[in-house]
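<amino_acid_chain>
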Amino acid sequence: MGNTAIIGLQWGDEGKGKIVDFLADKFDAVVRFQGGHNAGHTIKVGDKTYKLSLLPSGIIRGKFSVIGSGVVVDPIALFSEIKKIEEAGIKIESEKLAIAENACLILSVHRELDQLLESKKGEKKIGTTGRGIGPAYEDRAGRRAVRICDLMDDKILTERLENLLFYHNLLRKSLGAEIVTIQQIIAELEPVRARLLTHAKPAFEIAKKLNSFANVMFEGAQGALLDVTYGTYPFVTSSNTMAGQIALGSCLGVADLHKTIGILKAYTTRVGSGPFPTELECEIGNFLRIEGKEVGTVTGRDRRCGWFDAVLVRQSIQLSSVKEVALTKLDVLDKLEKIKICVGYKIGDKTFDYLPQANHLWDQIEPIYEEMEGWQESSFGAKTLAELPQKARNYVKRIEDLCSIKASIISTGPKREETIIL
């Protein structure tokens, strides 16, 4: 396999968890390279279901797992997640989980600021999870963040917190919130400090170990359309979600990524606010939501649902140099008589083969659709292409042609074995 990135090509929730778990046995290590605990992967192994937010999915298969320097880490959330996984029978020890010591921390002040700011926005809410990810990335860019390695020295930690809280307390006063003291944050960190440091490793040491493996998987969180640079800004996450971020957030360099596999859902969903040209606010949208069990792993919110949008997917494929994809949740479409695919946009008298970045144009978009015959037969659990109804195969082929990619994996159910390899 070589070193391979697995990234979502839509707005997240494409089923990356299952695909990462399915492929994990082919890899020696799995690396998370961006995001925080605002994204979730659901993995089903036999009769057990694991819900992960910060932990790399490879941890379930006993692979060497890394939380890279591009991730922002909430230590309270991390150890809560570890506790749940260990209660399910999987022991997580320091030699199996390495965390880059230069990763930045999410603290209670970040969570509180996130929620305070979102509550003030009213109808202009972005739809943040309120978990502090955005404010933590802001502090990193503002050079006032607390990094994991800062926990090693009391003097440095105090200096970092002085700088951080000077800024946060100014904001808190303007928002009517109580100021926070250094002692409060140190008390918050004390129960997890020593344990966090047992997993902390220098990025260069992690790189040396990863370079000793033949096959490393880079596991993305969220999806390409939520990228802070190229996504549907400002309705995006606070990190870069494209494959290029691997060179900055994985502890490895730009030449260490050999291949990128994109994950696509057979229709489109998104959680939270923002543009969604193919959204179905009708009976079919509700059908997809119910049939696909479209509820966010982390947020618990119902996902908005719509037809497959080849325009957006082509952009994601180009920007992350994707040559092959895993197509998920094909079986959700089994009962539909007609299925549509968006092949372009019309805005006024002009047509577009991309999503304009100018926000004022979004409300004017009219999707241009192709309609295909539904197969109205079960594809659930199919393990070979021959088991798929012919019209389902036609649908997959049309997506391949429109997006100029090859579907090398087709998922036909949530379990590991409910997968077609091409």
